[in-house]
Give the backbone structure.
Amino acid sequence: MENILEVKGVGKNFGGFTALSDVNLSIRKGERLGLIGPNGSGKTTLISCISGALQNDGGTIHFNGESIETLPAYARTRRGIARSFQIPRPFHSMTVLENLMVPLAYVGGVSGAKARKQGLEILDEMGLSDKAENSSASLSQVELRKMELARAMAAKPKLLISDEAMAGLSGSEVDDVLDILIKLNNQGITIIMIEHIMHAVMRFSERIVCLDAGQIICDGDPKTVVGNSQVQRAYLGD
Amino acid sequence: MFFSFELLFEAVLFGLMLGCFYAAVSLGLSVAFGLLDVPHVAHPALLIVGSYGAYMLGGWGIDPLVSGFLLMPIFFLIGMLLYRFYYETFESRGTAAGVNGLAFFFGVAFIIEVLLVVGFGVDQRSAEADYIGESLRLGDLRLPYRLLIAAGVALVLTVALSNFFSRTFIGRAIKAVGQDEGALRLMGADPVKIKQLAFGIATSVNALAGAMLIIVSPVEPTMDRIYIGRTFCVVVLAGMGSMKGTLAAGLLLGITESLVLTLFGASWATAVSFGLLLVMLGVRPQGLFGR
Amino acid sequence: MKYWIVSALAMLSAVALALSGANEYLFFAGFVVLQAVILATGWNILGGYAGYVNFGVPGFVGVGAYTALALHLLFNAPLIAQIVAGAAMAALLGLGVGLLTLRLRGIFFSIATIAVVFILEAVVMNSRFLGGATGIQLTRPNDVWLFGTYTRMLFVMMTLMAIVALSVARYVQNSYIGQGLRAVRDSEEAADCSGVPTLKVKLIACAISGALLGIAGAPMPMYLSYIEPLSTFNMHYAVIALAMPIIGGTSHWLGPLIGALILGTLQQIVTVTISSELNVLVVGVLLVVFVVAAPDGMIGLVKKWKTSSK
């Protein structure tokens, strides 16, 4: 099975501060990857380098065999990489459905009645169809998170990166979002999940990668990673 | 245009003094915009208000420099109120960075301009003091006292503010609030009150700088426009929020402007700050000393 | 369809008016109002739709005016050619400023636009060809086909340009580009991740906005028979170009039109009843009041009133 994403030797510096150094990561098609690590370890920086929000310093990134590290973010989205944000960023002047119509138009090239139909289908899957015509600024936290995922889905991604989509949600809300992610994976989408809620990570991931201070310190199946002493030290401190 | 080493040397010297003055004028903006990220395009307008304040107090025989100090507490209050209003209206509604915040300050600057025209007319106003018009003579060089005083005050201000921000608790809190509000909250400090304080300080520094402005040259109501260019140029050149960087950037601007003035004339000199700003934005937007 | 019928009617009314025996002053005043409509509409494409504030409106107006002047001096070009050239140069200016600063935060774009005014003013002041600081006088043809006076012809031309501007704004708003601009304005990062080529879209808005501002400025030399830098690069243009859309409403193409009509009327009343200095103050105060209390403009207020009275 080939790799959908190949990250080799990627680094990122902010002035004097090294956020990532020599990160190597290969992800198989259809994989469910959990990305963990203490705050400030570089998780969001890494996925921002993958999605194109940030430009990596050194190293290569290949998506489906194609080198993408010089492409701008929107071009990477059009090739199939979608992400949701830690703090939801709705298009607040638009309704929920209109939010989805942006990627439907700009990635899928679909507009008008056809786009509305596709948008409503996605909202239906997310359990948001009754909110379709509501202003996105009026949604609750968990609805916003779902809309973020719905909007990412409207970009018809092959790789979906979910950045702490469950932060601050209640127990049943966490399960809601988790079920959505599992359902999407079953449709063939490769998913990278950044999360601090350990039981969700354990339930979801086939494989876990742990970052600390900009480097990968452990990479393997969930039980092994969680039992790793370095990982435990990173989270609990010395 | 003839080349004379002496002429150029004088221009550079003049530029150094002018540069100190530009740095002083930009210190307030360095705090308001560099540290606090407020799109304060009305900062230069408040500077001019300070100048006119010194002018008015001059009518009662008060020396402009003294007027500057007298105006500082009033400007401090104005700054605090202005920031509070800005925060309540824009930042807390989440629309700060966009059109509305900018339009607000632009509107305020314009209103200030018009009120100054209505109150004082469009003619230039100058300050009167014994040292204006006199110069220090060093050999063949003439160093105007008014510039020396402005430069001196500017240096003192820069050092004072620099130390304030690096050594006092409040100063460091202000520096921190620009970078990490959350951490400050955890320490029990109220970020909004701290930002208000910082804005008040920035505005009161403006009062003193305004008094110096009218010492250095006559003022008229629309001068805030050229000073938007100069102050933002200095702040961007310095790299946001660096006090020492502000001094260095001010000197760079002052010397460049002075040289252009000597070599190419006055109408190009006013474009220098804007040109330098555009170049910096295109080439190195984080400024010379920023990260 | 309704839109085109109304536009055609407006055009016909303008022509009819110009052919009538109405007072010449009407056409002078009409030119100013129509120019305001074009300014507000052009500004709003970048300011309202994309969220980038152009303070350098006088610079773009000046580029339009001085390009028109150059064409007149060099080739004795007809008005329409002057306008097209003015629009093209202003569009290029918009692209230039955009390329330089649109990758940075919004406020740097705004400051750069102020820079443009000062730099352009310096260029004109130092150019004898363009008249320098003293300016240049132009002669207009005395007898104009059909309309009699040049002023009347200008009035009809400006009406046409205003309709062009409004049509462009309406088209952009409802188009694919308009959708992208709205996304960029609401959240540029999310727009990036939704496949919107944010820089391209912003640059297109810059060029279109610049072109319309240039169109507002291009007829000025012929209108005044005279042009000089101080009044051409006047910051007054910047304040009204901002105030009108904010008063009317920035998210819809009707907003700038409504704002222009309200402000224009108000200004006339104030100038006639109180004074002309206060007139300028009124613009500034209204700008601040609306930005603080009614940021969605008159259109927003009407919407709120409609939904609350249901």
The longest strand of chain B covers residues 135-138. Residues 5-35 of chain B form the longest helix (31 residues). Chain B has one domain: 5-283. Chain B has a mean pLDDT of 85.
